[in-house]
């Protein structure tokens, strides 16, 4: 348990690489182009600078953490890592191809994990010959500050693999919960996505305006953020994908997205990252 690889240097991948490096692990951060890798490392450096400004980190500690991270575009660099955490696009065909490649490249003992939000761990694992050593490690955004990691079993994931993953999670200062049987959305998003989707129904039906919906849930249910505020932060495109995945799997009408939801996406209203969702930013 010395070296970890993270595939995908976007916001989630960079955050995952950062917390492993902070936990003392050597990290290979890999993406398709070096410019993407460098952007990911810049994201990590910016995160660490914020910690310095808050008095949570020294300049010397920052340099030590950054020196543990090796950027790469070459999958061959993953030959001797102990754990791979994949955090690329949410597309089952892409993930299966990546895991088949990893299965051929990585050492026999290497555990392969995916940071997928809704896709099947079992289906991803089926593209490998090490189905017992494949699991979901679902981190939450922003990774450096969110404490939860969902550890998700596929149908053949061994208890040994889950226990090793628990050790990794503890060593990086996170709290792991085990999802014993894979299900779209796992624990958090299976509960959260319908809640946010229902808030969109309430808004679309004109029951209350957006600010009153958010205020009601903050003051009436003790939520730190209102549901429409949170939907904008998550990204309406990401939330829509979660809701549709739940609907496709269960064929239960309680998961159907409201037509207003898809109309907003067609207009490019993806939430805070796009400058406009339910609110303007």
Question: Which keywords apply here?
Answer:
11 helices, 2 domains, 281 residues, Rossmann fold, globular, alpha/beta, single chain, N-(1-d-carboxylethyl)-l-norvaline Dehydrogenase, domain 2, eight-stranded mixed β-sheet
Summarize, please.
The protein is an alpha/beta fold and 281 residues long.
Please characterize this protein's 3D structure:
By secondary structure, this protein is an alpha/beta fold. It has two domains: 3-179, 3-Layer(aba) Sandwich (Rossmann fold); 188-274, N-(1-d-carboxylethyl)-l-norvaline Dehydrogenase, domain 2 (Orthogonal Bundle). It is built from eleven helices and eight strands. The protein has helices at 11-22, 34-53, 59-67, 92-105, 121-125, 159-171, 188-204, 210-221, 227-234, 236-250, 259-266; strands at residues 3-7, 26-30, 69-72, 83-86, 111-114, 134-139, 148-153, 175-179. An eight-stranded mixed β-sheet has the order 3-2-1-4-5-6-7-8, sandwiched between helices. Strand 6 (134-139) and strand 7 form a beta hairpin. Helix 1 (11-22) crosses helix 2 (34-53), helix 7 crosses helix 9 and helix 7 (188-204) packs across helix 10. The longest helix has 20 residues, at 34-53. It is globular, with a radius of gyration of 19 Å. The protein starts with a strand and ends in a 15-residue tail after the last helix.
């Amino acid at each position: 348990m010395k070296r970890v690889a993270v595939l995908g240097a976007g916001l989630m991948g960079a955050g995952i690489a950062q917390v492993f490096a902070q936990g003392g692990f050597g990290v290979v951060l890999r993406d398709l182009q070096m410019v993407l890798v460098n952007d990911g490392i810049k994201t990590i450096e910016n995160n660490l600078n914020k910690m310095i400004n808050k008095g949570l980190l020294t300049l010397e500690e920052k340099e030590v953490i950054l020196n543990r991270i090796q950027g790469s575009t070459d999958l061959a660099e993953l030959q001797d890592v102990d754990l791979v955490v994949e955090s690329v696009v949410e597309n089952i065909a892409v993930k299966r191809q990546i895991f088949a490649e990893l299965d051929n490249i990585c050492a026999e003992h290497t555990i392969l994990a995916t940071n997928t939000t809704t896709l099947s761990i079992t289906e991803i694992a089926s593209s490998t010959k090490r189905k017992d050593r494949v699991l979901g490690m679902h981190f939450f955004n922003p990774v450096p500050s969110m404490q939860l990691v969902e550890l998700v079993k596929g149908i053949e994931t061994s208890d040994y693999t889950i226990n090793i993953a628990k050790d990794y999670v503890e060593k990086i200062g996170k709290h792991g919960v085990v999802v014993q049987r894979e299900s779209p959305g796992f624990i958090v998003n299976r509960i959260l996505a319908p809640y946010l989707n229902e808030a969109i129904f309430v808004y679309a039906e004109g029951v209350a305006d957006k600010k009153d919906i958010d205020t009601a849930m903050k003051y009436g249910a003790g939520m730190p953020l209102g549901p429409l505020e949170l939907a904008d932060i998550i990204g309406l495109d990401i939330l829509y994908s979660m809701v549709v995945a739940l609907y496709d799997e269960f064929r239960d009408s309680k998961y159907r997205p409201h037509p207003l939801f898809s109309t907003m996406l067609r207009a490019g209203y993806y939430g805070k990252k796009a400058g406009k969702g339910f609110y303007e930013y």
